[in-house]
Amino acid sequence: MKASTSTSKPSAKYHHGNLRQTLLAAAKQMIAADGIESLSLRKLADKVSVSRTAAYHYFDDKNDLLCAIASDGFRQWQQLLKQSEQQNQTERQKFEQYLVNYMVFATHHPEEYELMFGRCIWKQAQCTEELQTIAHGTFQHQVEMMAYWQSIGLVLGDNPLRTAQIIWGTLHGIAKLFIDGVYVDDTRAEEIVKSALPMFLVPKD
Amino acid sequence: MKASTSTSKPSAKYHHGNLRQTLLAAAKQMIAADGIESLSLRKLADKVSVSRTAAYHYFDDKNDLLCAIASDGFRQWQQLLKQSEQQNQTERQKFEQYLVNYMVFATHHPEEYELMFGRCIWKQAQCTEELQTIAHGTFQHQVEMMAYWQSIGLVLGDNPLRTAQIIWGTLHGIAKLFIDGVYVDDTRAEEIVKSALPMFLVPKD
DNA sequence: CAATCAATCTTGACACTGTCAAAATGCTGG
DNA sequence: CCAGCATTTTGACAGTGTCAAGATTGATTG
Asked: How far is residue A162's CA from residue A158's CA, in Å, rounded to a whole number?
């Protein structure tokens, strides 16, 4: 059955070959379209034309699958960060860029963002070790940036951890209020974070 | 059956009398104990010793019930606010009190807080008109307070809406990172928000 | 080449969920 | 006492995640 279109590509065989990747991609697509909570393993399996429980060979759990998506999200975010750091800008511009990047990433990948930082994984279910590691690394990196920006007198405060917590909190809060639909009109997210910027900076003169 | 203990109290009869309140109270208790997502209408019904679908005469939906809990949460929060405003303090103390109150309320009623401001209701399901109204009123009130604090030169900025959005964002973000378990050790929440305080104030001298 | 084996996928089954329609129950006014 | 009403229950259905057992395939040996 299933008209395996025998000829060239060996990828679409019974032994799917890369089911794991296919599942992840399809799942991302589905949550982007309809939200996390309306993703079911059965609909996902249907979409990939595979049986209900096929995913269980690649993921312990539904939770495990969601953690994998979240981990991918962190990788994507880290890459965006690295790429942005390499640009030729003043530190002040880099800092602003960081804030804006955060908002753009969050509002453009709302469901992945929710998985990365939301209760869905962190509170309710326990999170994978992989996820724990990569998330911690990301935050660590942010603290280091903050320490640097404080050391050169750009950002207020002398406690990098504390400052990172506050600034991250601000970004997270604004992002979440938009994502969750408490605030509407995402396009303003960038504006808001820009007007929050001066609060974090050492007044210059 | 059920030994209606005929004598005095007419409250515990078959026609339950105040099922709605009973259900709400039990539901709050259950989400406080095990979290929102593990609340099921059937377990709730069991707990109140009533049949699976009894709740449907008082609530359209599971969502409707959750909205009712959220509305109660807003009422509770408003009351706490009003009560705090009446205290004899400097405006600066009132502002600080407001920030601390927010964190204490959020971390002490995490599940209700999630219902009040989280995706569970605002994004995914549509929210009740009652909830919409009371939530909007609460925010409106906050904007007015911000306008006043800005007018007397206490808080930075000249755009009350914008400032309220940012400050609320900060509070919400920090609260949520604790509630959802990204940050641990809630007891530090108060500390963090206190060290964020100076960022919002007009520097005095 | 054929037989075996492990990886991969499917089927069957179970308990649990929200929700609707129809029936049953108890209360209250005539 | 009975009709009508508000209230509660029973039955049923489609979904859900997940486990155990079986079926299928590709690769690895002898």
From this structure: 9
Report yes or no: B24 at the A interface, CB cutoff 8 Å. no
Q: Tokens 């309220």 map to which residue?
A: B164
- Specify the fold of A14-58: Arc Repressor Mutant, subunit A (1.10.10)
Compare CB distances from A123 to B173, B180, B203 and report the shortest one's residue: B180
pLDDT value at residue B15? 62
CB contact set of B98 (below 8 Å; sequence gap of 6+): B81, B84, B145
B residues 84-143 lying closer than 8 A (beta carbon) to A? 114, 117-119, 122-124
Q: Quick: pLDDT tens for B106-151.
A: 999 999 999 999 999 998 878 999 999 999 999 999 999 999 999 9
CATH of A63-200, one of 1.10.357.10, 3.40.1280.10, 3.40.50.720, 3.10.20.600: 1.10.357.10
Task: Return the residue matching tokens 């639909």.
Answer: A181
Residue pLDDT, tens place only, A96-153: 999 999 999 999 999 999 999 999 999 887 899 999 999 999 999 999 999 999 999 9
pLDDT tens for A65-100 read 999 999 999 999 999 999 999 998 999 999 999 999
Sequence length of chain A is: 205
B172 CB neighbours in chain A (<8 A) are 173, 176-177
pLDDT at B185: 78
CATH number of B70-200: 1.10.357.10
Alpha-carbon distance A138 to nearest alpha carbon in chain B (angstroms):
13
How is residue A121 written in tokens?
A: 């994984």
Domain boundaries, chain A: 14-58, 63-200
